[in-house]
């Protein structure tokens, strides 16, 4: 196993801090907290530099808000300084860990993502079903309350296997320990990483890479992929897939202190359509999930309303529409796109 040394002094240079600050700014310049930070930008960045050099940096408190997209989630937002630190840390973690991840890990990675994930699952199904000439099954699993359940001590231990720079590990530990999901628990057994942190996306991949390696190297599963805490297996052998559930449950519990969601262990025939990552995947085509379609229509209509009330620009409206067209292009949705185009014209003129 390749390990990394002498990290901390490289990431705490002024040049690196300013570079990560510029990366952080992308798409956020008009946010009020960023505007306030930028009023004394040089002083704030200099203070951060001094705190990192002296190792006196401590993360601040999180603010939180609720989103419904589509299910209710509590998003925890760090302050501007902390989010700059998250950029600094994430760049290093990505460099160390991305090459260790399995090929079919699709969340929050360059050249991966939702669309590539669903296409990969479709290709796996086509191969295993021999171009839909024999029955093929897909087993889907989901981890129960994943982000709230990550064992922080286990996460730090996993990080320490590859990272042998104690100063960098201490910074990671400060970030991890700055949050825990259950305020009533013993602080010596803290759990949870916040939905919303840039670091949380990487921490989740590093944590669940343990599962990926177990599935590929110990269970020797041929067709397996994961997107965040959703993962799927493909096989023509129904019983083989069912037999995978118990060893995975045991591994998750013993090695990662996690549990499968009991109502989200789903086995379906590939030919009947598999609901995965917002799409219904069939052997020869894909369709957006009904709930996804409704949410898409609702969001565009709300954007049109804001445009008509002069609360947003035409450029912003067009960007939103094009982003959703980008979602639809990955499915067989010619009629749906036409329907959406007609609805947009109607909403603009009503």
Explain this structure to me?
Strand 1 (63-68) and strand 2 form a beta hairpin. The protein starts with 7 loop residues before the first helix and ends with a helix. The protein is built from 14 helices and 9 strands. With 350 residues, it is of the alpha+beta class. The mean pLDDT is 90. 53% of the residues lie in helices and 12% in strands. The longest helix is centred in the middle third of the chain and has 21 residues, at 198-218. It is flat and about 65 Å long. The strands form 3 sheets. The protein has a 4-stranded antiparallel β-sheet, sandwiched between helices. It has a 3-stranded antiparallel β-sheet with strand order 7-8-9. A two-stranded antiparallel ribbon has the order 1-2.
N-to-C series of helices and strands: HHHHEEHHEHHHHEEHEEEEHHH
**Fraction of residues in helix:** 40-55%
The gyration radius over C-alpha positions equals 22 Å
- Biggest sheet architecture: 4 strands, antiparallel
Tell me the overall shape. flat
Mean pLDDT: 90
Q: What's the assembly state of these chains?
A: single chain
Strand content: 5-15%
Count of alpha and pi helical runs = 14
- Low-pLDDT runs of 5+ residues are none
How many distinct beta strands? 9
Strand order within the widest beta sheet: 4-5-3-6
């Amino acid at each position: 196993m390749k390990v990394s040394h002498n990290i901390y002094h490289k990431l705490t240079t002024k040049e690196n801090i300013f570079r990560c600050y510029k990366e952080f700014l992308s798409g956020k310049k008009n946010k009020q907290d960023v505007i306030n930070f930028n009023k004394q930008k040089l002083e704030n960045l200099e203070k951060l530099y001094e705190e990192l050099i002296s190792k006196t940096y401590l993360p601040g408190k999180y603010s939180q808000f609720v989103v419904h997209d589509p299910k209710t989630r509590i998003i925890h937002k760090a302050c501007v300084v902390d989010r700059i630190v998250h950029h600094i840390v994430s760049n290093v973690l990505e460099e160390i860990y991305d090459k260790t991840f399995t090929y079919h890990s699709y969340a929050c990675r360059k050249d991966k993502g939702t669309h590539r994930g669903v296409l990969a699952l479709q290709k796996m199904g086509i191969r295993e079903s021999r171009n839909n000439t024999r029955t093929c099954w897909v087993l889907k699993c989901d981890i129960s309350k994943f982000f709230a359940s990550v064992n922080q001590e286990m996460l730090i231990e996993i990080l320490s296997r590859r990272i042998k720079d104690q100063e960098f590990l201490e910074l990671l530990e400060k970030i991890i320990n700055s949050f825990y999901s259950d305020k009533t628990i013993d602080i010596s057994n803290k759990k949870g990483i916040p939905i919303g942190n840039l670091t949380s996306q990487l921490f989740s991949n590093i944590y669940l890479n343990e599962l990926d390696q177990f599935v590929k190297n110990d269970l020797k599963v041929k067709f397996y992929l994961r997107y965040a805490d959703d993962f799927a297996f493909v096989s023509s052998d129904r019983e083989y897939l069912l037999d995978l559930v118990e060893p995975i449950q045991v591994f998750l519990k013993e090695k990662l202190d996690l549990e499968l969601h009991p109502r989200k262990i789903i086995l379906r025939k590939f030919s009947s359509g598999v609901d995965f990552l917002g799409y219904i995947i069939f052997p020869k085509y894909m369709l957006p999930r009904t709930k996804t379609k409704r949410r898409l229509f609702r969001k565009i209509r709300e954007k049109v309303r804001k445009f008509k009330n002069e609360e947003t620009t035409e450029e912003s409206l067009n960007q939103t529409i094009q982003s959703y067209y980008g979602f639809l292009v990955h499915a067989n949705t010619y009629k749906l796109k036409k329907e959406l185009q007609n609805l947009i014209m109607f909403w603009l003129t009503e």
